[in-house]
Amino acid sequence: MAPKTTPDTLAKFKDPALCRNLLDRIRAELPGPLAFMEVCGTHTVAIFQSGLRSLLPEEIRHLSGPGCPVCVTHEGEVAAFLELARKDNVIIATFGDLMRVPGPKGTSLKQAQAEGCRIEIVYSAFDALALARKHPESRIVFLGVGFETTAPTVAATIKVAKEQGLENFLVFAMHKLVPPALAALLQDPEVNLDALILPGHVSTIIGVEPYRFLAEQHGVPSIITGFEPLDILQALLLIIDQRKTGRPQVVNQYSRAVADDGNPKAREIMAEVFTVSDALWRGLGRIPDSGLALAGEYQRFDALTTLGVEVQDLPPLPGCRCGDVLKGKMQPNNCPLFSKSCTPATPVGPCMVSTEGSCAAYYKYAL
Amino acid sequence: MCLAVPMEVKSINTELNVADVEIAGVKRQVRLDIIDYPASVGDYVIVHAGFALRRLDREDALETLKLFQEGLNLQFN
Ligand code: SF4
Q1: Is A192 left (phi over 0), alpha (psi -120 to 50) or beta?
Q2: What is the pTM of this model?
Q3: Pick from A190, A188, A152, A194: nearest CA to A173
Q4: Which of B33, B51, B61 sits opposite A5 (nearest CB)?
Q5: Position in ligand 1 atom list of the atom nearest CA A353
Q6: Residues of B in contact with A2 (CB under 8 A)
Q7: Distance, CA of A248 to CA of A184 (rounded, Å)
Q8: Please, what's the b/e burial string for A344-364 (b: 16 or more CB within 10 A of its CB; e: otherwise)?
Q9: Least confident window among A107-116, A216-225, A244-253, A317-326
Q10: Does ligand 1 come within 6 angstroms of the Cβ of A317?
């Protein structure tokens, strides 16, 4: 019988002796300064939490990228969902992280709720269906944020809503796609990166293929990685190897969770419900083909058209440098507002709100 | 919100298309709509936003660990 993946097996990915060994090898083999970006906010937090940041050699510079779904939600999208919240007979269903994201006038969903708007925190898009059943007289608007990891869960939920004929369930689809954002990032001449650590759970869905251009067109070594200290250290060693051989590649280090072709079933459901569209990203602007809009017969679930709300291309909040932080051009603690007017208790930008946001991670672990 | 964690499948209800999963005493019910490979009781699945995304591959996890371990042994020999 095949051995089981037990909590024991999982714990071994944190084994201090193994970590020390990999760290020693990184130190011995590092050919020079290396700036890597981890795209995903969960990696940012994992790198801080495990203490890796302070253990890595100083020549390794670590940047955080645009991979926190709350952080990349555009100013115009925040304004639009606040407008949706103020509509009569609407109940907003949202993941908790969006509650405190400040809108253009500084208000958030939390404040809107205090003013009497009906807002429910859900753990899953599917929970919003239960709300729709419970409140047939109201319209439930689910705020669909998240990358390729989350979008299929929302797509599957919309499919069930259709099957069950839940007419009062609506979705504001703000989903964003990672590879087009990486392409936009690497085309920016001010962004300087030697390597990328690719988001493990986005890759669970999309697989390896959509990242090939990173190595082939941009010459950037890119590793799909898990979230344990050993995973991240091994990814760095793989990057160092590629540096030495001068052959940039996309490597899947996280094969225990990521099949090379990802999860075709999830992609199928996503492609049935959504169609690829342009999207506005905070700090990165409009990126062609980087978002998802409801497709065909699923368009009737679209909250914006049903309730007559539009997303406007609003300017960034005064003083907030989230855009530069998301592009790895600025470390959070170099933002003039960091830990002064902007703290997790009084966030100015979304990067300070979400637990996966770089500013929040810096505030918690690097101060 | 983006967090995805491995959890152990404790029971499966094919009629409702859900599974009960658990890790370190935390229990959840997850949807099985998008998992690509059917999971069975005792498997670990990656759970995100109320859905199981994928079954964790045991062989692969052990293989990766073996690689790390070999690196360590080489150094000590
Ligand atoms: S510290 Fe606050 S204001 Fe500055 S970039 Fe981060 S979130 Fe924006």
Answers
A1: beta
A2: 0.92
A3: A152
A4: B61
A5: 7
A6: 58-59
A7: 19
A8: beebbbbbbbbbbbbbbbbbe
A9: A317-326
A10: no
Q: Is A38 helix (H, G, I), strand (E, B) or coil?
A: strand
CB contact under 8 A, A150 and B53: no
Q: Nearest residue of A to residue B41 by CA position?
A: A4
* Mean pLDDT for chain A overall: 93
Q: Give the residue-averaged pLDDT of B44-69.
A: 84
Spacing, Cα A366 to ligand 1 middle (Å): 15
| Cβ-Cβ contacts under 8 Å, A97 against chain B | 1
CA dist A3 → A30, B61, B63 (Å): 36, 10, 11
Hey, what are B77's tokens? 């020999």
Q: How far is A95 from chain B (nearest CA, A)?
A: 7
CB A126 within 8 A of CB B23: no
- State which of A14-23, A227-236, A286-295 shows the largest mean pLDDT: A286-295
Q: At what angle do helices A41-49 and A229-245 cross, to 10 degrees?
A: 110
Rounded to whole angstroms, the Cα distance separating A19 from B65 reads 11
DSSP state of A350: G
- Interface of B to A at Cβ within 8 Å reads 1-4, 6, 23-24, 31, 33-36, 42-44, 46, 48-51, 53-54, 56-65, 67-69, 71-72, 75
Mean pLDDT of B32-54: 93
C-alpha Rg value of chain A to the nearest Å: 21
Alpha helices in A122-228 (DSSP H): 125-134, 151-163, 178-187, 200-206, 212-216
The nearest CA of chain B is from the CA of A361 a distance in Å of 14
In one-letter notation, the amino acid at residue B20 is: D
Using the mean position of ligand 1's atoms as its centre, give its distance from the Cα of residue A355 in Å.
Answer: 13
Q: What is the ipTM of this complex?
A: 0.89
Given pLDDT bands bounded at 50, 70 and 90, which one contains residue A10? low
- The pLDDT-based confidence of B76 (bands split at 50, 70, 90) is very low
